[in-house]
Amino acid sequence: MHMIENGNVAAALGVRRCRVNVIAAYPITPQTPLTERLSEYVEAGEMKAEYIPVESEHSALAVCIAASSAGSRVFTATSANGLLYMHEQVQWASGARLPIVMCVVNRAVGAPWNVWNDQQDSISQRDTGWIQIYCSDHQQIIDTVIKAYWIAEKVSIPIMVCYDGYILSHTYMPFDLPDQDKVDAFLPPFKPDYALNPDEPASLNTVTLPDVRVDVRGELAHGYMEIRYLLQEELRKTLAVAAEAEKRFGDIFGREGDPYLESYRTSDADYIAVGLGSLTYQLRVSVDALRKEGIKVGILGVRFYRPFPDEAVASALKGKKAVIVFEKALSYGYEGALASDLKSALYEHLAGTGALPAVQNYILGIGGREIHTDHLTQALRAAIQGSISKEPVWIGLKL
Amino acid sequence: MQGKTTILTLPAEEFVHPGTRACTGCGLAIAYRVGLKALGKDTILVVPPSCLTVLQGLFPVASTKLPCLNVTFASTAAAATGILAALNDQGRDHITVAAWAGDGGTGDIGLQALSGAAERGDDFIYFCYDNEGYMNTGVQRSGTTPIGAITANTPFKGKLQQKKDIPAIMAAHNLSYVAACSAAYPLDLYDKIKSCLSLPGTKYFHIHIPCPPGWGYDPRYGIKIGRLAVETGYYDLYEIVNGKFRLTAASEKLLEKRKLVPVSEYFRAQSRFRVLTDDQIAGIQQQIDQKWEGYYRQDD
After folding, report:
1. Rounded to a whole number, what is the distance in Å from the CA of B177 to chain A's nearest CA?
2. How far apart (Å, rounded) are the C-alpha atoms in residues A75 and A93?
3. Do A207 and B69 touch (CB under 8 A)?
4. Closest in B46, B70, B90 to A72, CB measured
5. Which of A275, A367, B41, B227 could form a disulfide with A108 if both were Cys (CB 3.0 to 4.6 A apart)?
6. pLDDT of A328-380, one tens digit each?
7. DSSP string, chain B
8. Helix A7-17 crosses helix A32-43 at what angle (to 10 degrees)?
């Protein structure tokens, strides 16, 4: 069914279609309309789920961690400082290998207070062992929520579905609402290997020693380091699982794309703009304008950010003259995190081949600073004309 | 209410294996062992980092025969809510959810989550085992460390502030059940747990836990010291059922006897109170006497 709704409702509908059992949420702008909508579904009896109006984001994820450990499919959503307040629990969820899905409606973090969009919140959680997927429109939001549960439950690793606050969360766009029976065909009920149960008692997340230790049956049990190594290994294998999810989703819903990257006019491009989320759609206007001048430029939207699809990224950028990375967040003290990751992938896969592109990093839209399309065009033009700086360049700065 | 449980009628089934990693003479080991007997087999436990994490054992070995979710320090009550939500969703609502946290994990870092769960009225039992300090990290002061106690971070003067009254805070949430218990009176704890199992909403237990390394006494005197706290009227055993307060067990007997053991006997039995002066002890004695005058008046 086609409908026109805002991005938060697209997410809420996705959660409803996935027959989530337990929802816990604490209000924070711009996430609120999403969780309000879920509370409406539950109170109206349109969705059979437990909705827990917790007293903090830390507790929101605590409820999800515990309910997931007890065998239920769970959901929460947050933004900005809410996500930062969860940070301890974010790490706990991945360490405990729980298939939690959380929407992060991207917003700038304090201080100073700012309620507008950038992506510092989710980027700051990059190294927590979660899968991170960025959406560029409402169709991607609802589809990604559905795919996320399938992937998360397949690999027992939590997923952040990230989308830009206001730009996507509060704007109305047409999208297709997947049929319930198709979602049911795509996503079977959650059946964890173990759920807390008095008939089969187990102690979860117990203190685990630096070294391996023999269990009561005389078998060697993992040490902390083995458990953490497996998280890393299985995160890397998630790239293949994501491709499987994409294929399966395409077979059932008739919509399929690249599981990791979203390319626009890249096949013959000499220059590639790279970004996360809705920004990559705004960049299309600049790219189209430059194309009219005969400049061969395209866009690579990184959808799957963690685990990082390094091979796919390097392959997409191989032999390009320059790569221009636009970011609404940065690793303070160095440069944009995506730029660093991308350079690492290029070095890993292309060093010594003569196919290494130059990389320019732009920081923009911080704290909701308006992103003018002509500024994007100018920035692209500057990099294409050879202006490549060592330090990231901030667009639209008024100092 | 059923008759009082005795050591002869206490169920034989154990849910805590012998040989835990608790310190010798640990009061928690007693309260936990008896508490789990009262909770029974169909229970899921929630435990934050605390002495109990140590008692429970190191992976892949556990000293408890009940399923247990170890959670972050501040999230105990919220995690209990999460398990409850899953059980309700799955129709497994015959299972009891029981959280066991220390006094710091309850009254300091865990208070927000506990207050949230209590306000929502989530149907689980919360146990705060109060050894009056951050004992697992090496005996630092907590909100529930009593005035005058030497700890690792109140090293010379002793704690200068009063003990935070967490059961009173929980009672202010209008819970169906709030109880104050002691590891020195495990059967009182057992009967209270049994009596509240069918009550709705959040049930709160506060358990006074003598701690040999933290309080400074020979481990064999743990029960004696726990009893002294009650016999001196310093720590009271009570329950508040649907808002109605009543002293229980040894505290109830004190109400009849109307004679308290001098609190100096309690203080002088532990090295942590060594800097309390006679004047300070006299002041505390006065507070205790006033509190008990109130009990006597209510009783008359």
Report:
1. 22
2. 12
3. no
4. B90
5. A367
6. 999 999 999 999 999 999 999 999 999 999 999 999 999 999 999 999 999 99
7. -PPPP-TTTS----SB-SS-SSPTT-HHHHHHHHHHHHH-SSEEEEE-SSHHHHHH-STT--SBSS-EEE--GGGHHHHHHHHHHHHHHHT-TTSEEEEEEEHIIIIITTHHHHHHHHHHT-S-EEEEEE-SSBTTTTSB--TTSPTT--BTTBTTT---SPPP-HHHHHHTTT-SEEEEEETT-HHHHHHHHHHHTTS-S-EEEEEE---HHHHTS-GGGHHHHHHHHHHTTSS--EEEETTEEEE-HHHHHHHHH--PPPHHHHHHT-GGGTT--HHHHHHHHHHHHHHHHHHHHHH-
8. 40
Please give the pLDDT value at position B3.
Answer: 81
- In chain A the domains, ranked by start, together with CATH numbers, are 2-186 (3.40.50.970), 261-394 (3.40.50.920)
Beta strand pairing call for A358-363 and A393-394: parallel
- Taking a C-beta distance cutoff of 8 angstroms, is the pair A254, A280 a contact? no
- The Cα–Cα gap between A45 and A248 comes to 30
C-alpha to C-alpha distance for B66 and B125, rounded to whole angstroms: 15
**Rounded Cα gap, residues A304 and A261, in angstroms:** 7
Read off the tokens for A273: 């703009």
Residues of chain A with C-beta less than 8 angstroms from the C-beta of B78: 24, 54, 56, 58-60, 62-63, 66
Encoded amino acid at A84, one letter: L
* Structure-block tokens of residue B122: 């989530």
B67 touches chain A (CB under 8 A): yes
Given a contact cutoff of 8 angstroms between Cβ atoms, the answer to whether B203 and B196 are in contact is yes
Inter-residue contact B289 to B283 (CB < 8 Å): no
Q: What residues of chain B lie within 8 A of the CB of A206, using their CB?
A: 53, 56-60, 62, 68, 70
Task: Show Cβ contacts of residue A145 under 8 Å, excluding neighbours closer than 6 positions.
Answer: A11, A14, A15, A18, A101, A103, A161
- State pLDDT tens for residues A284-306: 999 999 999 999 999 999 999 99
Burial of A163 (0-12, 13-18, 19+ CB in 10 A): buried
Per residue in A37-90, pLDDT (tens digit) is 999 999 999 999 999 999 999 999 999 999 999 999 999 999 999 999 999 999
- For helices B222-231 and B249-257, angle between their N-to-C axes, nearest 10 degrees: 40
pTM of the model: 0.97
Q: Residue A357 and residue A379: Cα distance in Å, rounded? A: 17
Q: Coil, helix or strand for A140?
A: helix
Spell out which residues of chain A touch residue B70, defining contact as CB-CB under 8 Å: 203-207
Please report how many Cα atoms fall inside a 13 Å half-sphere around the Cα of residue A96, on the Cβ side. Answer: 31
Contacts for A154 with CB less than 8 Å, ≥ 6 apart:
A241, A244, A245
DSSP states of B108-119? ITTHHHHHHHHH
How do residues B25-82 score in pLDDT, each as one tens digit?
999 999 999 999 999 999 999 999 999 999 999 999 999 999 999 999 999 999 999 9
Q: Hey, is the C-beta of A198 within 8 angstroms of any chain B C-beta? A: yes
* Touching B: A residues 259-298, CB under 8 Å: none
DSSP element (H, E) containing A380:
helix A373-384
Identity at A342, one-letter amino acid code: L
Distance separating alpha carbons of residues A130 and A90, to the nearest angstrom: 8
**Contacting A residues, span 83-122, partner chain B, CB-CB under 8 Å:** 88-89, 92
Q: Of B162, B220, B140, B211, which is closest to residue B182 (Cα–Cα)? A: B211
